[in-house]
Amino acid sequence: MSLVEPTTISLLGMALDAAVMRHQAIAQNIANAGTPGYQRIAVSFESRMAELQGAIAQGQPLPSLGQFQPFFEAADNDAVSLDTEMAALSENTLHHQALLKALNKHMALMSLAINEGKR
Amino acid sequence: MDYHAAFQISATGMAVEKLRLDVTAANIANMHSAGTSVDQVYQPLRVVAQAIPLELSRQFGQLYAAAGGVEAAAVVPQAVAPRMVSEPGHPYADARGMVAYPGVNQTDEMVNLNTALRAYEANVAAMNAARTMASRTLDIGGQQ
Q: Is a pLDDT exceeding 70 seen at residue B62?
């Protein structure tokens, strides 16, 4: 095991990127609430995590993380409803804060190790 | 992380909704502007918005493109029939004593006004959420 365990931090970084991109997608959908013929957009990230979870559960070597980068995609539902978008916006903001907390705790753990358990 | 894009998207949304409010206000303000003839009467306006596409995939190693949002494609006059009112003493009255007023639909205008207002508020909420996310991100690795 390397000194600075890289998977957690890079996964959290990708999840944070996905949260920021999802925020952009929701902001785009809200901004175009009154645009005729608008195609909603979404972000693809969490739905592709199953493969990674399977590899971790079976103790296999992790596949390259590059293929799990989040990207924008066209959403299946066409009509923008402001209430759904606002709910998604709140959820995404909270999710982003949860990810930040996880990252901070992880770094606090490393800091504890570096300081030999002393405060 | 490119927070500029999120703010920009919400800002374009707010600009378009504000234009909608302006246009609705102009329609309501001109509700009783008599026209010198049937052809000269004020026509109610409508904003036609169009999306500025956000890049749907990663290209050339960029994580995402900064564009996105919405813009007003056009402000189009609506071809509605003028409202003819019998006012024989009016300076713009025609031979039959009828004066042409714009065919502004007050119900439509009020519904548009409220829809634009709510959409504007939704854009403000999205921008505030972006600000919260940005300021919390700045705390990464800080004191717990």
A: no
Tokens of B22: 């302006």
Q: Which residue has the tokens 């813009």?
A: B71
* Closest in B58, B68, B122 to A82, CB measured: B122
ipTM of the complex: 0.80
Give pTM, 2 decimals.
0.83
Residue of A67, A62, A69, A92 whose CA lies nearest to A14: A69
**A72:B64 CB<8 A:** yes
| Cβ A40 vs Cβ B143: under 8 Å | no
- B54-87 b/e (C-beta count within 10 Å ≥ 16 → b): bbeeeeeeeebbeebbbeeeeeeeeeeebeeeee
Are B133 and A28 within 8 A, CB to CB? no
CA distance A67 to A77: 26
Letter string b/e over residues A64-87, b meaning 16 or more CB atoms within 10 A of that residue's CB: eeeebebbbeeeeeeebebeebbe
